[in-house]
Design a protein that fits this description.
Blueprint: H1 2-26, H2 39-64, H3 68-77, H4 81-98, H5 103-108, H6 116-133, H7 139-161, H8 183-203, H9 208-226, H10 229-244, H11 254-281, H12 285-292, H13 298-312, H14 319-323, H15 325-340, H16 351-358, E1 368-369, E2 372-373, H17 385-393, H18 395-418, H19 423-440, H20 447-472
Antiparallel strand pairs: 1-2
Helix pairs in contact: 1-2, 1-7, 2-6, 4-6, 4-18, 6-20, 7-8, 7-9, 8-9, 8-10, 8-19, 8-20, 10-11, 10-19, 12-13, 15-16, 15-17, 17-18, 18-19, 18-20
């Protein structure tokens, strides 16, 4: 009788965890002014509350009774390099916060950005907790729910762009941001979800595959509407990696082989036609002008063309022209800050301290971003993940961060050969990480992208742990 009560309680507690994770993953939809505005501020507050309640429930249940499954996961994963690097990154950020130029700001940050060590530590704890608590059978449910939320966020972006339900939603005919707070935040959020939707659509044999593939196409369309060039580049490189580096020989299923062959052929044709079309458009100024004025995708085309056009002038090509002169000039200032404090940096969220110290209005295009006047050229973000981490937490933190993604990539690569039937999942996650890092080389994170990134890391811990457990058995 007592065992039945214990089992019933544990089932109810697990459903509590499952609902909690779903609420956290639904937070990208939360943007209700003025109570939850700025958008990231409201999201992170609710996120910390939900995760804290879940963490206390987890600790209480862990101390009050034996959790053999969780104990096995801990025993397996504590030896993992990925897990050690994740904790090391948290440790370095903790030290950088203690020795910060402004410790309080490094810990709490501002409502506008909603970063800081407190939120960053919660993201890491989230990835660990989701790995420890979720059962193997429920990972598909979590990803399905996450994709549904992404679908709703994308749908709101369409309503904004075309002025639908304008009495409820704020219309944005140029670059919709949906509920994420900025077009770039929306683009990177959907970028991380795109490859998961694609691989689920290819892998599944049921009618659900149509939903996944529809989500993939919808996400691509919204990324185009956001006109975020960083996301364009990340998506392009990610798709190239996904299609042309896919381990075809590892596939036993001929159906998957045919789909990947068609995908490779399609991308190859698009690349060839795209290159020819770009050179042709470069000599057709009237057509370019009409495309830029197009209400449907004009802003996205205009910003993408501004990055492609410098590549066509091979004799005068430069990195500054590709990245935009204003951003490249700001990176020069950031690099001076890195050289002054290379060990622990200025502290999390204190990029502006180093930027202010070395700011020089005489630097070419420092007050301009993307060809448009950007006020005084003052930045509180590097718009580059490598410089952001190096300035705020030091070069050791950047090395650990890169090693973390390197370890994830390497472990997923090994899993492809051990478990060919799931190779497409591992490959899709690798493509997601590549696209994310490329995009964030020219941008930065928000709650919406962080929560998907660390969910992916938690999922990788699950895949690594499951493979190690199967191997020992």
């Amino acid at each position: 009788m007592e065992n039945n009560k214990t089992c019933l309680f544990e089932n109810r507690l697990y459903w509590f965890y499952l609902i909690g994770f779903c609420l956290i993953l639904a937070l990208p939809l939360l943007n209700i002014a003025p109570w939850f505005s700025p958008a990231n501020w409201g999201k992170t507050i609710v996120f910390r509350i939900i995760l804290s309640v879940m963490a206390f429930g987890f600790l209480w249940s862990l101390l009050s009774r034996e959790k053999s499954e969780i104990g096995q996961k801990i025993a397996v994963i504590r030896k993992s390099l990925v897990f050690k690097l994740l904790l090391s990154l948290l440790g370095v950020y903790f030290l950088a916060t203690i020795f910060s130029q402004d410790p309080y700001f490094s810990f709490w940050n501002s409502p506008y950005r909603s970063g800081g060590f407190l939120n960053f530590s919660f993201y890491i704890f989230f990835s660990i907790l989701v790995f420890l608590l979720l059962k193997k059978a429920d990972w598909n449910k979590i990803w399905n729910f996450t994709l549904v939320i992404g679908f709703l966020v994308a749908l709101i972006a369409i309503f904004q762009h075309f002025g639908l339900f304008s009495n409820i939603l704020a219309s944005d005919f140029s670059r919709p941001s949906s509920t994420t707070g900025a077009p770039s935040f929306l683009a990177i959020y959907l970028l991380l979800l795109s490859f998961l939707a694609l691989v689920f659509g290819i892998q599944k044999k049921s009618k659900k595959s149509l939903f996944y593939l529809f989500c993939f196409i919808l996400f691509l369309f919204i990324i185009l509407l956001t006109a975020t060039r960083a996301a364009f580049l990340g998506l392009f490189i990610g798709l190239l990696f996904f299609a042309f580096f896919f381990p075809i020989r590892e596939f036993i299923d001929k159906r998957h082989w045919r789909k990947m062959t068609w995908l490779k052929a399609g991308l190859g044709i698009i690349l060839i036609l795209g290159a020819i079309g770009a050179y042709w458009l470069n000599s057709q100024s009237q057509i370019v002008e009409s495309l830029e004025k197009n209400k449907f995708f004009g802003t996205g085309f205009s910003r993408a063309w501004s990055s492609i056009q410098p590549l066509l002038d091979i004799q005068n090509i430069s990195f500054g022209k590709i990245a935009s002169e204003g951003r490249y000039s700001g990176w020069k200032v950031a690099w001076q800050s890195v050289k002054e404090k290379p060990i622990l940096g200025y502290g999390p969220e204190n990029f502006s301290i180093g930027f202010d110290k070395y700011y020089d209005p005489a630097i070419s295009s420092i007050t301009r971003e993307g060809g448009r006047d950007a006020g005084s050229g003052w930045w509180d973000r590097a718009h580059n993940f490598a410089l952001e981490i190096a300035v705020c937490a030091g070069i050791p933190a950047l090395i650990i961060y890169l090693l973390l993604f390197g370890a994830l990539f390497e472990r997923l690569q090994k899993l492809k050969h051990r478990n060919p039937s799931k190779a497409i999942i591992y490959h899709g996650i690798q493509a997601s990480f590549i696209a994310y890092l490329i995009a964030n080389f020219f941008s930065f994170d928000s709650y919406s992208s962080y929560i998907i990134l660390f969910l992916l890391i938690g999922y990788c811990l699950h895949l690594i742990s499951a493979a190690q457990t199967e191997q020992t058995c």
